[in-house]
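Quick entry between incubations.
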Amino acid sequence: MRTKNILLLLATLLLTATLASCSDTKEEEKTDIELARELYAALAPTHLVVNQGNQASGIAGSVTALNYASGQSMHYAFGCINGFALGDTPQNVFRQGSRQYFCVFGSNLVWAVDAQTMQVVGQMKVSAPQRVAADDKWVYVASNEGYVTRFNAQTLAEDRHIEVGPNPMGLALANGDLYVSISDSYNWDGAMQNGKKVVRIDIESWQPEATILVGLNPTRLEATADGYIACVCNGFFDSEQHVYAISPDNSVRMLTYGSDCVAAGSDVYVAYSVTNWETMKTTCKLSLWNLAGGELLKENITAQPLDYSPTFLAYDAARKLIIMGKRAAGTDYTAAGSVEFRTTDGKLQKVILTGVEPYSITAL
Amino acid sequence: MPAAAQDMPQREAQLGTASVVAQAERVGEHQAMPVQRADTAELRRRAVVSVADALRHFAGVSLRDYGGTGGLKTLSVRGVGAQHTLVAYDGIVLSDTRSGTIDLSRFQLDGLSALQLNVAEQPELLCPARQLGAAVLHLSALRPDTTRRQLQGAVSLQQGSFGLWKPALRLAKVLGSHHAVGLSSQWLMARNDFPFRVSNGIASHEERRANNRVSDWNIEANYQSTGLGWGSVSGKVFFSKSRRRLPGPVVLYVNDNDERLDERTAFAQMRYDLSRGAWQFFAAARGHWNESLYRNHDKSYPGGVQMQNYWQREAYVALGASWTRGCMALAYSADGILQSLSSNVSTSTHASRTTLLQSFSLRLSLRRLDVTARALLQLHKNNLRGSGEGARNAGRLTPSMSLRWHIVEGRKFSLNARAYMNNVYRQPTFTESYYQHYGNPHLRPERALQMGAGMALRLNPSEALHGSLAADAYLGRVSDKIVSLPVTAWLWQTVNMGRVDVRGLDVTAQLVWTPAKSHRLGLHGNYTWQQVYDRTDKALRSYNLQLAYMPLSSGSVSVSWENAWLCLSAALTGCSSRWSTHTHTPTTRLKGFEELNISVWKSLSLGRRCHLLLRADLINALNTGYEIVRRYPMPRRNYCVSAELKF
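Done. Structure below.
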C-alpha cells in the first residue's frame, strides 16, 4: 500500500512538472487582452450593444458583441479588448465608416473605437455627453449642459461648439444639417417649458438655421432616407407620448402616439408603451408609418402587444430586422438584459442575452 | 422581582449617575428580548472611535456605510431593513419622514454614555407605543454625576487623519439635592479626502476622495430632576448645524462632484415619570424641526443648480400608565404624532401625517417564567396639500408575545431561555409616497414578522472572572416590501412587491478577568449568520438569493488590557462577501473584509478632581481597502489622537 502511494505521488509530481513546462510555450504567454482580441475576431460580431449598467448598484457600462447568425456573444467586449472599462452610464453608440463612437454620459467622454477590432483610437472629453452622431468629417456630441460640440473626425480635436438650449437629447443628420432636440427635461418645476423644440444647425456655417416647435420633452430624433425627421416627445414620462414628423421645409405635424421610434428607409417603426399605474403592467405596440405622407402602413406588427417597454428600438436595414432592448424583469433589473430580433412582420427570430440595461445597438 | 429587574436598564439610564460610566456591558442575558448594551467606556475598550464602529460590535446588525466621517450610516437589524430600525435619543424616538432612516453619523460617541440595541420588543413593560418596532437603538447622552456639587465637565480635542478636528465642551452643575443642568457642545470638521484605489483593469490608479468636506456643530442643554416626591423630570433642548459636501459614488474617469447638503435641526423633548405604589406613570413630549437644503451645482439644471429644500416638523406626545399586582403587570400607553414635510419640489409641496398609536401590555411573572403579551393599534391618516393625491390611510392591530424562562438562577451561574414573536409594520416614507414621478401614494404599509429563541448564560466562577454567552436563532419575513423599480426606459416608481425571508443566528460572548488590582483583561466577540433571501417571485433570477449588501457572516472580536501604565486594546471586525445587487453576478460581488483597530490610552490624575485622558487610535491598521456600499470606498489606514480633561 505504501509503495502504491509513493508511485502515485511520483506520477503526480511528473505530471505537474510536465504541465509547468508546457506553460512556457509561446501559446500560453498571451495576455488576457490578446486572447480577448482573438476571441472577438473569431466571433465576427454583427452587432454591438451598449449596456448602460446601473450606477446605483455600481455596475459600469459595457459593450456586448454578438453574432446574430450563430447567436453567440461576447460580454464586456470593450473592457476585455482594451483592458479598461467603457465608463459609467453610456448613452449610445454610433457607427460611421471605420469608427464606432461610444457616448459615455457619466464619465464625461466619447470613445472613438476601430469598428473592426474594437480597439480604442482616442477619446473626446465632453461634460455630460448625451448623444453622439457623426459624418465623414465631423463628430457631433450633444452635452446635457446645453450645447453641441463638433470634433474633427480624423484628429478627434475639438473644433467648435454651439449653445442650443437646455438638455439636448437627440441628434440627427439630414439635409446637410444637424438636428438637435431640446428637452429641458431637468426643469420639472418649470414643466419643461424651455424645451419643446428642435434646433436645426447648418453644418457648414455652424449657425442655427431654424427652431422647430414640437411637443413636450422631445428626445429621440430619427432621419429618414427622404430627409424627414421623426421626433419622439416623451411628455412627463408618465403622461401621453407622441411622435412628430418634421419635413425638410421645417413644417411639423403630430404623427401618432409613440414612446420610441427608428427609421427604416423612408418609414419609421414606432413603439408605444403604456403603463397601467394601478396594476403597474406595461404593454407595447409596434407600428410602421410613412413620415412624408403621415400614413399608417402597418398596425400591431407583433401578434400580441409586448409586455415590456423596450429600452431601445433599432432597425437593421441589411438584415431587415427590428431589434428591441429588454431589461430583466421586476427586481431583476440589475441582471443581464437581452435583445429581441424580430422580422418586419413581427415574428420573433432570436433573443440574445446582453449586459445590464441594454440601451443602444449598432449593426456592423 | 423578575419584572422589576427587567426595568433596570431603563431606570439606570434615567438615574444616570456616575455609576453608568463604569457600568459593565450587558449582553442581554437577563432579558426576554435580545438586548445588547454597552457603555462608552466599554466601547472604548474595544478600540471603537465612532457610533458606526460601535455598532459593528453588536450582533445581528448590518450597517450601511457610505464611507468617511460624514458618510451616511444607517442600521438594519436582523435582516428586516433599515427603515424598520428606530433610533431613540434619551428615550424618545427620532424620526425622518422623508427617508425613514436616521443617519447615525450625526452622533458622536464622545457625547454618549451608552448604546443599547433592543430587538423585536422593549424590556420595559411601560414604554411609549412608538418604541414597539422591529428594533430600537437607544442612544443615551452623558449625564452629570449627581453626587458631586461642584461644577463638573470636560473639555476635549480630537485630531485625526484627513483634516479631522473635533473640539468638545461639556459642563454640568448639580443644583440643590434633586436638580442638575448641563450644557454640551461639539464641533466636527474634516476634509475627508482619503485616498482610495479605482479598479479599472490596466487603467487602475490611486485617487483621493473629492468634495467630501464636512462641518457639524451641535449644542445641547439638559435638565434633570430625580428623587422628588412628585416624580422625576428630564428634558433637553438640542440644536445642530451641518454643512456637508457630498462626494457621490466613484465614477470612472471622473473625480469631481459638486453636491452639497446643509442641514439644521432643532428639537426639545421632556419626559416625566412618577411611581406611586403599584402604579407607574409617564408622559413624554417632543417637538422637532429640520431643514435640509440640497444643492447640486450642475449646468444641466435651470440656473446651473438643482435645489431641493425640505422642511420637516414633528410634534409628539406620549402618555402611559402601568399597574403591578402580584405576578401580573398591565400597561397602557398612547402616542400621538403630527408630522409634516414641505419642500420646494413641485409635486410634494406639503405632505402631512397624523398617527395615533396605542399599546396594551400584559406581563405575568411566575416563579421561573415571565410572559409578556402586547397589542399595538396603529392608525395613520395622510394628507397632501395642493395638487396630487394623498397617500392611503392605514390602520392595523399588531400583536406580539415574548417569554423568558429562568432555568438556573445563581450567583455564580445563571441560565435563561427566551423566545419572542413580533409583528410590525411601517408606513411608506414621504419620499416613497410623493417624490416627483417616483413616489406612489397607493403603497401599502410594509409588514414584518419576527420570531426568535435564544439562551443566555452567565458565569461568575470567582470575583476576578466574569463571563457571559448569549445565542439567538431567529426567523423573519418582510411582506409587501416597498421597492423602486424601473417601469419604462425613463421612469422609476415605488411599488409593493417584495417578500424577504430571514433566517439568522447571533452569538455574543464576553470574558473579563481581573488577575490583579489595576489589571483588567477583556475579551469580547460576536458573530452573526444571516440568510436574507428574496422570495418575491420564483420567475426572477434573484429568487432565493441573498439580498444586496447583506453579508452571510459578520462579526467582531476585541481584546483589551487595562493597567496602571498604558492601556491597550485591539479589535477586528469584518464580514463575508456580499453583492451590490439582488441578482448575483461576478461583477457585483463585493469581497469580504476585515478591519483591525488598535488603541492605546492613559489616564493621568491632575489633582483630586481633574483627570486627563490621552488616547491614540490606529484605525484600519492593516490598510484594508474595502467598500460597504459599492463605489463608496472606506478610508484605509488612518489615525486619531485625542486629549480630554475631565473635572
